[in-house]
Fold:
Amino acid sequence: MRVPCLNLEQDRERTMIFSSPFVISFLLLVSVPVLFVLAPRILPPKTLPSIPDRDEMDDLALFRRTTLASSGAGGSGGIRRRTAAPPKIAFMFLTNSDLSFAPLWERFFRGHERLFNVYVHADPSSRLRLVPTPSFSGRFIPAKATQRASPTLISAARRLLAAALLDDPANAFFALLSQHCVPLHSFRFTYDAVLADSGAPPAAHGDAVLRHRYRSFIEILAGEPGLWDRYIARGDNAMLPEVSFDQFRVGSQFFILARRHATMVVRDRRLWKKFKMPCLKSREDSCYPEEHYFPTLLEMQDPEGCSHYTLTRVNWTDSVGGHPHAYRPLEISSDLIKELRRSNSTYSYLFARKFSPDCLDPLVELADSVIFRD
Structure:
Protein backbone atom coordinates (compact mmCIF):
# COMPACT_ATOMS: atom_id res chain seq x y z
CA MET A 1 0.00 0.00 0.00
CA ARG A 2 2.99 2.30 0.30
CA VAL A 3 3.64 2.50 -3.47
CA PRO A 4 0.26 4.03 -4.36
CA CYS A 5 0.63 6.49 -1.50
CA LEU A 6 4.07 7.46 -2.72
CA ASN A 7 2.77 8.07 -6.26
CA LEU A 8 -0.05 10.18 -4.90
CA GLU A 9 2.39 12.33 -2.94
CA GLN A 10 4.59 12.78 -6.03
CA ASP A 11 1.57 13.87 -8.10
CA ARG A 12 0.69 16.43 -5.44
CA GLU A 13 4.24 17.80 -5.49
CA ARG A 14 4.21 18.10 -9.29
CA THR A 15 0.85 19.87 -9.17
CA MET A 16 2.15 22.32 -6.56
CA ILE A 17 5.30 23.00 -8.57
CA PHE A 18 3.45 23.67 -11.86
CA SER A 19 0.77 25.72 -10.15
CA SER A 20 3.19 27.98 -8.35
CA PRO A 21 3.11 31.65 -9.39
CA PHE A 22 6.78 31.54 -10.39
CA VAL A 23 6.36 28.71 -12.86
CA ILE A 24 3.20 30.20 -14.37
CA SER A 25 4.93 33.54 -14.86
CA PHE A 26 7.94 31.83 -16.42
CA LEU A 27 5.78 29.91 -18.89
CA LEU A 28 3.92 33.07 -19.85
CA LEU A 29 7.15 34.93 -20.51
CA VAL A 30 8.42 32.11 -22.71
CA SER A 31 5.14 31.78 -24.63
CA VAL A 32 4.83 35.45 -25.60
CA PRO A 33 7.78 35.55 -28.06
CA VAL A 34 6.77 32.12 -29.41
CA LEU A 35 3.25 33.38 -30.15
CA PHE A 36 4.70 36.57 -31.67
CA VAL A 37 6.74 34.50 -34.14
CA LEU A 38 4.11 31.88 -34.96
CA ALA A 39 0.90 33.94 -34.95
CA PRO A 40 1.39 35.55 -38.40
CA ARG A 41 1.92 32.06 -39.86
CA ILE A 42 -1.02 30.44 -38.09
CA LEU A 43 -3.66 33.20 -38.16
CA PRO A 44 -4.99 34.63 -41.46
CA PRO A 45 -4.13 38.29 -42.19
CA LYS A 46 -6.74 40.79 -41.10
CA THR A 47 -8.54 41.97 -44.22
CA LEU A 48 -11.35 44.28 -45.16
CA PRO A 49 -14.76 42.67 -45.91
CA SER A 50 -14.84 40.48 -49.00
CA ILE A 51 -17.60 40.02 -51.57
CA PRO A 52 -20.27 37.61 -50.26
CA ASP A 53 -20.25 34.25 -52.05
CA ARG A 54 -23.93 34.58 -52.95
CA ASP A 55 -23.31 37.93 -54.68
CA GLU A 56 -20.40 36.45 -56.61
CA MET A 57 -22.48 33.50 -57.78
CA ASP A 58 -25.31 35.77 -58.93
CA ASP A 59 -22.84 37.92 -60.87
CA LEU A 60 -21.20 34.94 -62.55
CA ALA A 61 -24.59 33.73 -63.76
CA LEU A 62 -25.33 37.19 -65.19
CA PHE A 63 -21.92 37.44 -66.84
CA ARG A 64 -22.26 33.98 -68.39
CA ARG A 65 -25.58 34.96 -69.97
CA THR A 66 -24.00 38.12 -71.32
CA THR A 67 -20.95 36.28 -72.66
CA LEU A 68 -23.11 33.65 -74.39
CA ALA A 69 -25.25 36.34 -75.99
CA SER A 70 -22.13 38.20 -77.16
CA SER A 71 -20.50 35.04 -78.52
CA GLY A 72 -23.59 34.32 -80.57
CA ALA A 73 -23.05 37.57 -82.43
CA GLY A 74 -19.67 36.80 -83.87
CA GLY A 75 -17.39 37.31 -80.92
CA SER A 76 -15.24 40.33 -80.46
CA GLY A 77 -17.64 43.23 -80.45
CA GLY A 78 -20.83 42.10 -78.90
CA ILE A 79 -24.40 41.51 -79.90
CA ARG A 80 -25.13 42.23 -83.55
CA ARG A 81 -26.89 45.55 -83.98
CA ARG A 82 -29.91 46.00 -86.21
CA THR A 83 -28.88 48.08 -89.23
CA ALA A 84 -31.89 50.40 -88.81
CA ALA A 85 -31.01 51.27 -85.21
CA PRO A 86 -28.48 54.09 -84.70
CA PRO A 87 -25.71 53.47 -82.15
CA LYS A 88 -26.69 54.47 -78.63
CA ILE A 89 -24.88 55.60 -75.50
CA ALA A 90 -25.71 53.71 -72.30
CA PHE A 91 -25.60 56.16 -69.39
CA MET A 92 -24.86 54.03 -66.30
CA PHE A 93 -25.36 55.68 -62.91
CA LEU A 94 -23.65 54.14 -59.88
CA THR A 95 -25.27 55.63 -56.76
CA ASN A 96 -25.80 55.20 -53.03
CA SER A 97 -28.03 58.26 -52.62
CA ASP A 98 -30.72 60.24 -54.41
CA LEU A 99 -30.32 61.12 -58.08
CA SER A 100 -30.51 64.81 -57.25
CA PHE A 101 -29.52 65.96 -60.75
CA ALA A 102 -32.10 63.86 -62.60
CA PRO A 103 -34.04 67.02 -63.67
CA LEU A 104 -30.87 68.42 -65.28
CA TRP A 105 -30.19 65.09 -67.02
CA GLU A 106 -33.80 65.08 -68.28
CA ARG A 107 -33.19 68.37 -70.03
CA PHE A 108 -29.94 66.95 -71.41
CA PHE A 109 -31.72 63.85 -72.79
CA ARG A 110 -34.82 65.62 -74.13
CA GLY A 111 -35.48 65.00 -77.82
CA HIS A 112 -32.81 62.27 -78.19
CA GLU A 113 -34.72 59.22 -76.96
CA ARG A 114 -33.54 57.04 -79.88
CA LEU A 115 -29.87 57.63 -79.05
CA PHE A 116 -29.50 56.64 -75.40
CA ASN A 117 -30.49 54.29 -72.59
CA VAL A 118 -30.24 54.83 -68.82
CA TYR A 119 -29.26 52.21 -66.24
CA VAL A 120 -29.03 52.76 -62.46
CA HIS A 121 -27.29 50.63 -59.84
CA ALA A 122 -28.52 51.90 -56.45
CA ASP A 123 -27.08 50.41 -53.28
CA PRO A 124 -29.94 48.47 -51.61
CA SER A 125 -29.28 50.26 -48.31
CA SER A 126 -29.81 53.69 -49.89
CA ARG A 127 -33.18 55.36 -49.38
CA LEU A 128 -34.12 57.20 -52.55
CA ARG A 129 -36.67 59.84 -51.59
CA LEU A 130 -36.94 61.62 -54.94
CA VAL A 131 -39.41 60.29 -57.50
CA PRO A 132 -37.46 59.13 -60.59
CA THR A 133 -37.98 61.36 -63.64
CA PRO A 134 -39.12 59.73 -66.92
CA SER A 135 -35.68 58.72 -68.23
CA PHE A 136 -34.77 57.09 -64.88
CA SER A 137 -38.11 55.47 -64.07
CA GLY A 138 -37.94 51.70 -64.38
CA ARG A 139 -34.24 51.78 -65.28
CA PHE A 140 -32.91 50.35 -61.99
CA ILE A 141 -31.04 47.06 -62.34
CA PRO A 142 -30.78 44.35 -59.62
CA ALA A 143 -28.16 45.74 -57.23
CA LYS A 144 -25.90 44.55 -54.42
CA ALA A 145 -24.30 46.38 -51.50
CA THR A 146 -21.27 48.55 -52.25
CA GLN A 147 -18.66 50.21 -50.07
CA ARG A 148 -15.41 52.11 -50.39
CA ALA A 149 -12.04 50.34 -50.32
CA SER A 150 -13.77 47.28 -51.69
CA PRO A 151 -14.05 45.37 -54.99
CA THR A 152 -17.84 45.71 -54.65
CA LEU A 153 -17.56 48.93 -56.66
CA ILE A 154 -15.98 46.96 -59.52
CA SER A 155 -18.76 44.39 -59.27
CA ALA A 156 -21.42 47.10 -59.48
CA ALA A 157 -19.84 48.60 -62.61
CA ARG A 158 -19.57 45.16 -64.22
CA ARG A 159 -23.25 44.53 -63.37
CA LEU A 160 -24.20 47.77 -65.13
CA LEU A 161 -22.14 46.81 -68.18
CA ALA A 162 -23.71 43.35 -68.36
CA ALA A 163 -27.24 44.72 -67.98
CA ALA A 164 -26.68 47.29 -70.72
CA LEU A 165 -25.09 44.74 -73.06
CA LEU A 166 -28.04 42.38 -72.67
CA ASP A 167 -30.73 45.04 -72.77
CA ASP A 168 -30.14 46.70 -76.14
CA PRO A 169 -27.92 45.54 -79.04
CA ALA A 170 -27.74 49.16 -80.19
CA ASN A 171 -25.76 50.24 -77.11
CA ALA A 172 -22.36 51.09 -78.58
CA PHE A 173 -20.84 53.08 -75.71
CA PHE A 174 -21.14 52.69 -71.95
CA ALA A 175 -20.60 55.79 -69.79
CA LEU A 176 -20.13 55.19 -66.06
CA LEU A 177 -21.32 58.14 -63.96
CA SER A 178 -22.15 58.89 -60.33
CA GLN A 179 -25.11 60.69 -58.78
CA HIS A 180 -22.79 63.69 -58.35
CA CYS A 181 -21.97 63.97 -62.08
CA VAL A 182 -23.43 66.62 -64.38
CA PRO A 183 -23.16 67.18 -68.16
CA LEU A 184 -20.97 70.01 -69.44
CA HIS A 185 -22.31 70.11 -73.02
CA SER A 186 -25.48 69.41 -74.96
CA PHE A 187 -26.47 65.84 -75.77
CA ARG A 188 -25.73 66.32 -79.47
CA PHE A 189 -22.22 67.63 -78.76
CA THR A 190 -21.57 64.73 -76.36
CA TYR A 191 -22.91 62.12 -78.78
CA ASP A 192 -20.92 63.44 -81.74
CA ALA A 193 -17.71 63.67 -79.68
CA VAL A 194 -17.96 60.08 -78.45
CA LEU A 195 -18.81 58.64 -81.87
CA ALA A 196 -16.29 60.75 -83.78
CA ASP A 197 -13.43 59.06 -85.65
CA SER A 198 -11.65 57.20 -82.89
CA GLY A 199 -8.19 56.64 -84.27
CA ALA A 200 -8.32 53.03 -83.07
CA PRO A 201 -6.83 50.42 -85.46
CA PRO A 202 -9.45 49.12 -87.94
CA ALA A 203 -10.84 45.61 -87.60
CA ALA A 204 -8.89 42.85 -89.34
CA HIS A 205 -11.93 41.50 -91.19
CA GLY A 206 -14.95 42.90 -92.98
CA ASP A 207 -17.73 42.29 -90.47
CA ALA A 208 -20.02 45.31 -90.73
CA VAL A 209 -20.42 45.43 -86.97
CA LEU A 210 -16.67 45.57 -86.40
CA ARG A 211 -15.42 47.55 -89.39
CA HIS A 212 -15.30 50.76 -87.37
CA ARG A 213 -13.46 50.16 -84.12
CA TYR A 214 -14.51 52.80 -81.65
CA ARG A 215 -12.09 53.88 -78.97
CA SER A 216 -12.76 53.74 -75.25
CA PHE A 217 -12.25 56.88 -73.17
CA ILE A 218 -10.59 55.61 -70.01
CA GLU A 219 -7.71 57.03 -68.02
CA ILE A 220 -4.70 54.68 -67.90
CA LEU A 221 -1.64 55.89 -65.98
CA ALA A 222 1.65 54.28 -64.93
CA GLY A 223 4.36 55.45 -62.56
CA GLU A 224 2.04 57.50 -60.38
CA PRO A 225 3.08 58.35 -56.77
CA GLY A 226 1.93 55.71 -54.31
CA LEU A 227 1.31 53.10 -57.01
CA TRP A 228 3.46 50.49 -55.26
CA ASP A 229 1.47 50.87 -52.02
CA ARG A 230 -1.71 50.30 -54.00
CA TYR A 231 -0.23 47.29 -55.75
CA ILE A 232 0.59 45.51 -52.47
CA ALA A 233 -2.67 46.52 -50.72
CA ARG A 234 -3.80 42.86 -50.77
CA GLY A 235 -0.41 41.49 -49.75
CA ASP A 236 3.15 41.69 -51.04
CA ASN A 237 2.80 39.03 -53.75
CA ALA A 238 -0.98 38.75 -53.93
CA MET A 239 -1.29 39.99 -57.53
CA LEU A 240 1.26 37.54 -58.96
CA PRO A 241 1.55 35.89 -61.40
CA GLU A 242 -1.44 37.38 -63.24
CA VAL A 243 -0.47 41.03 -62.70
CA SER A 244 3.12 42.11 -62.24
CA PHE A 245 3.86 45.58 -60.91
CA ASP A 246 4.96 46.87 -64.32
CA GLN A 247 1.51 45.91 -65.67
CA PHE A 248 -0.42 47.55 -62.83
CA ARG A 249 -2.23 50.78 -63.81
CA VAL A 250 -4.35 53.48 -62.21
CA GLY A 251 -7.07 55.71 -63.61
CA SER A 252 -10.31 57.54 -62.92
CA GLN A 253 -13.21 55.41 -61.70
CA PHE A 254 -15.42 56.95 -64.40
CA PHE A 255 -15.05 56.04 -68.06
CA ILE A 256 -16.77 55.55 -71.43
CA LEU A 257 -16.17 52.07 -72.87
CA ALA A 258 -16.74 50.93 -76.43
CA ARG A 259 -18.91 47.83 -76.74
CA ARG A 260 -16.05 45.40 -77.41
CA HIS A 261 -14.30 46.57 -74.23
CA ALA A 262 -17.51 46.30 -72.19
CA THR A 263 -17.79 42.71 -73.41
CA MET A 264 -14.13 42.13 -72.56
CA VAL A 265 -14.71 43.29 -68.97
CA VAL A 266 -17.76 41.06 -68.48
CA ARG A 267 -15.90 38.04 -69.88
CA ASP A 268 -12.85 38.47 -67.68
CA ARG A 269 -12.19 35.86 -65.01
CA ARG A 270 -8.39 35.81 -64.88
CA LEU A 271 -7.72 39.30 -63.50
CA TRP A 272 -10.94 39.41 -61.53
CA LYS A 273 -9.83 36.56 -59.27
CA LYS A 274 -6.97 38.83 -58.14
CA PHE A 275 -8.83 42.14 -57.90
CA LYS A 276 -11.75 40.63 -56.01
CA MET A 277 -9.45 39.75 -53.11
CA PRO A 278 -10.02 42.08 -50.13
CA CYS A 279 -7.28 44.49 -49.13
CA LEU A 280 -5.40 44.16 -45.86
CA LYS A 281 -6.90 46.25 -43.08
CA SER A 282 -3.46 47.72 -42.41
CA ARG A 283 -3.34 49.03 -46.00
CA GLU A 284 -6.87 50.39 -46.21
CA ASP A 285 -5.64 53.88 -47.15
CA SER A 286 -4.13 52.46 -50.35
CA CYS A 287 -7.13 50.33 -51.34
CA TYR A 288 -8.91 51.73 -54.42
CA PRO A 289 -9.57 48.65 -56.57
CA GLU A 290 -12.12 50.39 -58.82
CA GLU A 291 -9.34 52.76 -59.95
CA HIS A 292 -7.08 49.88 -60.99
CA TYR A 293 -9.06 46.95 -62.36
CA PHE A 294 -10.42 48.55 -65.55
CA PRO A 295 -7.27 50.43 -66.65
CA THR A 296 -5.07 47.40 -65.88
CA LEU A 297 -7.32 44.99 -67.78
CA LEU A 298 -7.67 47.18 -70.89
CA GLU A 299 -4.00 48.14 -70.94
CA MET A 300 -3.11 44.44 -70.94
CA GLN A 301 -5.65 43.46 -73.62
CA ASP A 302 -6.10 46.43 -75.97
CA PRO A 303 -3.98 49.49 -75.14
CA GLU A 304 -4.18 50.90 -78.68
CA GLY A 305 -7.97 50.91 -78.52
CA CYS A 306 -8.06 53.24 -75.48
CA SER A 307 -7.62 57.00 -75.23
CA HIS A 308 -5.71 56.75 -71.90
CA TYR A 309 -7.66 59.77 -70.64
CA THR A 310 -11.11 60.26 -69.11
CA LEU A 311 -13.82 62.66 -70.27
CA THR A 312 -15.11 63.27 -66.71
CA ARG A 313 -13.50 66.23 -64.94
CA VAL A 314 -12.68 65.96 -61.22
CA ASN A 315 -11.06 68.57 -58.98
CA TRP A 316 -8.55 67.00 -56.55
CA THR A 317 -6.91 70.24 -55.41
CA ASP A 318 -8.40 70.14 -51.89
CA SER A 319 -9.44 66.52 -51.53
CA VAL A 320 -10.27 65.18 -48.07
CA GLY A 321 -10.22 61.49 -47.14
CA GLY A 322 -9.92 60.40 -50.76
CA HIS A 323 -12.93 62.52 -51.84
CA PRO A 324 -12.51 65.26 -54.48
CA HIS A 325 -13.61 68.85 -54.10
CA ALA A 326 -17.41 69.15 -53.90
CA TYR A 327 -18.76 72.25 -55.65
CA ARG A 328 -21.31 74.33 -53.73
CA PRO A 329 -24.06 76.63 -55.12
CA LEU A 330 -22.04 79.85 -54.72
CA GLU A 331 -19.32 78.39 -56.97
CA ILE A 332 -21.66 77.69 -59.88
CA SER A 333 -21.19 80.15 -62.76
CA SER A 334 -20.76 80.25 -66.53
CA ASP A 335 -17.02 80.73 -65.99
CA LEU A 336 -16.87 77.54 -63.91
CA ILE A 337 -18.62 75.53 -66.64
CA LYS A 338 -16.21 76.83 -69.28
CA GLU A 339 -13.23 76.10 -67.03
CA LEU A 340 -14.43 72.56 -66.33
CA ARG A 341 -14.70 71.89 -70.07
CA ARG A 342 -11.03 72.67 -70.72
CA SER A 343 -8.84 69.66 -71.33
CA ASN A 344 -5.35 68.81 -72.56
CA SER A 345 -6.70 65.87 -74.57
CA THR A 346 -8.32 65.76 -78.00
CA TYR A 347 -11.81 66.50 -76.63
CA SER A 348 -13.05 68.84 -73.97
CA TYR A 349 -14.45 67.24 -70.83
CA LEU A 350 -18.03 66.06 -71.31
CA PHE A 351 -19.00 65.54 -67.65
CA ALA A 352 -17.84 66.83 -64.27
CA ARG A 353 -18.12 65.88 -60.61
CA LYS A 354 -18.50 66.35 -57.70
CA PHE A 355 -21.48 68.66 -57.10
CA SER A 356 -23.52 68.93 -53.90
CA PRO A 357 -27.27 68.27 -54.36
CA ASP A 358 -28.16 71.92 -53.65
CA CYS A 359 -26.32 72.91 -56.86
CA LEU A 360 -29.30 71.73 -58.93
CA ASP A 361 -31.14 75.08 -59.14
CA PRO A 362 -28.14 77.22 -60.19
CA LEU A 363 -27.13 74.56 -62.73
CA VAL A 364 -30.64 74.43 -64.22
CA GLU A 365 -30.55 78.21 -64.53
CA LEU A 366 -27.40 77.89 -66.65
CA ALA A 367 -28.62 74.90 -68.66
CA ASP A 368 -30.00 76.58 -71.77
CA SER A 369 -27.78 79.66 -71.81
CA VAL A 370 -24.43 78.01 -71.02
CA ILE A 371 -24.28 74.24 -70.47
CA PHE A 372 -26.29 73.17 -73.53
CA ARG A 373 -24.93 75.99 -75.68
CA ASP A 374 -21.73 74.63 -77.15
Remarks:
- The CA atoms of residues 185 and 257 lie 19 Å apart.
- The longest strand covers residues 88-95.
